[in-house]
């Protein structure tokens, strides 16, 4: 299957560490994905699952929700990612970031790879797909173009209640927001960004939810360097390196086998994702308790 980005777009990504907007679906299809997300919220109120539904939205949703495994395998998304990473692609994680209207939730300035245990690899890309309008008012992402040319810089954990990141992690040096660009996306558009990119997002002061799906793609050459084991879902090509335990998409939402696998992966991944934390990392609390 051919890659979809032009050579100029691929070169821009290499230079800037990010690329947007990229059209991957029309607004009607994006609305269907959003409706499916919101139907899950109606079907699984708090108390109906071992953890709140948002836990599964935010951590490895592709393991227990067919919807999230499907969007991670969307052909137009894979075509664009293939333009950057090549023909062999695995999904390490698929997450939903939801900011409710008129709420103060933010994402602080950070680099994704800081706590993932993969080192400073160039063979990882995040695709961020807008399922509702992502604007300055609704708290869209901000990128500092070219910041991926930095190494991983020092971060500190804040554990702030209004921070959507698992540890409230933030870059420990000053980031001048005058250097940042707003990643404005309409439903059905996406951005791509490098794992060392400086990025953040502000509060949602609009009257609509800001719903975005972040999919973390890696190549078979990437290795987990901190945890003993790590897992990924092959979505295109082949895995000839065997650095990952390959997993299959779930047969149905929250089926018994998928939930068992989810718990095992949470336990194993939490070794890397909570390393060095000075207090319990809420999204990984279950994994920490089982270690």
Structural key phrases:
alpha+beta; 7 helices; four-stranded antiparallel beta sheet; Jelly Rolls; seven-stranded mixed beta sheet; 291 residues
Q: Number of DSSP helices?
A: 7
In CATH, what is the homologous superfamily?
q2cbj1_9rhob like domain
Kindly give the count of domains: 1
The helix content, as a percent range, equals 25-40%
Mean pLDDT: 92
Summarize the structure in words.
It is a single chain. With 291 residues, the chain is of the alpha+beta class. The protein has one domain: q2cbj1_9rhob like domain (Jelly Rolls, Sandwich). It contains 7 helices and 13 strands. The strands form 3 sheets. The chain has a 7-stranded mixed beta sheet. A 4-stranded antiparallel beta sheet has the order 3-10-5-8, with no helix packed on it. The protein has a two-stranded antiparallel sheet with strand order 6-7. It starts with 6 loop residues before the first helix and ends with a helix. The C terminus is likely disordered.
Strand and helix map with partners:
Blueprint: H1 7-16, E1 18-23, H2 27-43, H3 53-58, H4 66-72, H5 75-85, E2 89-99, E3 107-110, E4 124-130, E5 141-143, E6 155-157, E7 169-171, E8 181-182, E9 189-194, E10 199-201, E11 210-218, E12 231-236, E13 245-246, H6 256-273, H7 285-290
Parallel strand pairs: 12-13
Antiparallel strand pairs: 1-9, 2-11, 2-12, 3-10, 4-9, 4-11, 5-8, 5-10, 6-7
Quick gist of this model?
The protein is an alpha+beta fold. It has helices at 7-16, 27-43, 53-58, 66-72, 75-85, 256-273, 285-290; strands at 18-23, 89-99, 107-110, 124-130, 141-143, 155-157, 169-171, 181-182, 189-194, 199-201, 210-218, 231-236, 245-246.
């Amino acid at each position: 299957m051919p890659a979809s980005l032009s050579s100029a777009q691929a070169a821009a990504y290499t230079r800037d560490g990010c690329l947007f907007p990229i059209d991957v679906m029309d607004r009607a299809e994006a609305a269907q994905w959003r409706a499916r997300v919101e139907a899950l919220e109606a079907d699984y109120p708090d108390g109906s699952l071992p953890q709140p539904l948002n836990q599964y939205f935010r951590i490895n949703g592709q393991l227990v929700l067919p919807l999230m495994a499907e969007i991670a395998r969307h052909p137009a998304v894979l075509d664009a990612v293939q333009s950057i990473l090549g023909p062999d692609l695995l999904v390490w994680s698929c997450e939903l970031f939801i900011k409710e209207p008129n709420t103060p939730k933010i994402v602080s300035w950070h680099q994704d790879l800081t706590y993932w245990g993969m080192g400073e690899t160039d063979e990882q890309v995040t695709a961020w797909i807008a399922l509702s309008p992502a604007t300055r008012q609704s708290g869209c992402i901000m990128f500092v173009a070219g910041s991926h040319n930095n190494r991983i810089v020092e971060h500190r954990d804040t554990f702030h209640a209004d921070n959507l990141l698992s540890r409230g992690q933030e870059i420990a040096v000053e980031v001048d927001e005058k250097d940042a660009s707003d990643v404005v996306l309409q439903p059905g558009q996406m951005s791509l960004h490098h794992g060392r990119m400086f990025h953040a997002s502000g509060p949602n002061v609009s009257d609509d939810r800001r719903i975005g799906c972040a999919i973390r793609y890696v190549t078979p050459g990437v290795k987990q360097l901190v945890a003993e084991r790590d897992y990924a879902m092959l979505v295109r090509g082949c895995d000839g390196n065997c650095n990952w335990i390959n997993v299959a998409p779930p047969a149905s939402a929250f089926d018994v086998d998928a939930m068992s696998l989810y718990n095992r992966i949470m336990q194993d991944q939490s070794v890397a994702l909570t390393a060095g934390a000075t207090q319990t990392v809420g999204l990984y609390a279950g994994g920490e308790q089982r270690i």
